[in-house]
From TrEMBL:
Keywords: Phosphoprotein. SUPFAM superfamilies: CheY-like (SSF52172). InterPro entries: Bact_response_regulator, CheY-like_superfamily, Sig_transdc_resp-reg_receiver. The keyword Phosphoprotein applies. This is Response regulator.
């Protein structure tokens, strides 16, 4: 079974470490990468794509030096290589306008405010990666035990 890639980005190492710790249980079937800037994410995505790897999900902080999370996710949403990549904004400092922009221009799938609930984040990742697998036409049976069974059931009806 090929592992799908999940990329987490936050410029604060302690927050990034907390996200990675919360998602640790998913590491048996997802390759979880971490970055500390938008530029680092874009570079990693180019490398993974060049290696023929799939990026199922990006979880991004909003307030970062350089590009904001909304700017990063908007840029990713416009890249034809990553049209089906799912996007989550995880932040404690986005304004109402930032959130609306994230939904409208970046096409985010989910928004979490800090502090988040670990179980909700894990469930969200499982749900979005399951949808990605079906959207990409991948053989879901390889991942079946790890997937959101409600999504699997809905897609197979």
């Amino acid at each position: 079974m090929d592992k799908l890639n999940l990329i987490c980005v936050d410029d604060q190492r302690e927050v990034l470490s907390a996200v990675l710790q919360d998602l640790q249980s998913l590491g048996q079937w997802l390759n979880i990468e971490d970055c500390e800037s938008a530029d680092e994410v874009l570079e990693l995505m180019d490398e993974l794509d060049a290696d023929g790897e799939m990026i199922a999900l990006i979880i991004s902080d909003h307030v970062m030096p350089g590009k904001t999370g909304v700017e990063l996710l908007t840029e990713i949403s416009k890249d034809s290589r990553f049209l089906r990549t799912r996007k989550v904004l995880l932040t404690g400092q986005a304004t109402h306008t930032d959130t609306i922009n994230a939904i409208n221009s970046a096409g985010i799938d989910r928004y979490f405010e800090k502090p988040w609930q670990a179980e909700q984040l894990v469930d969200c990742v499982r749900n979005l990666v399951t949808k990605y697998i079906f959207d990409m036409g991948l053989d879901y049976t390889e991942y079946h035990e790890h997937l959101d069974q409600n999504v699997v059931f809905d897609r197979l009806r």
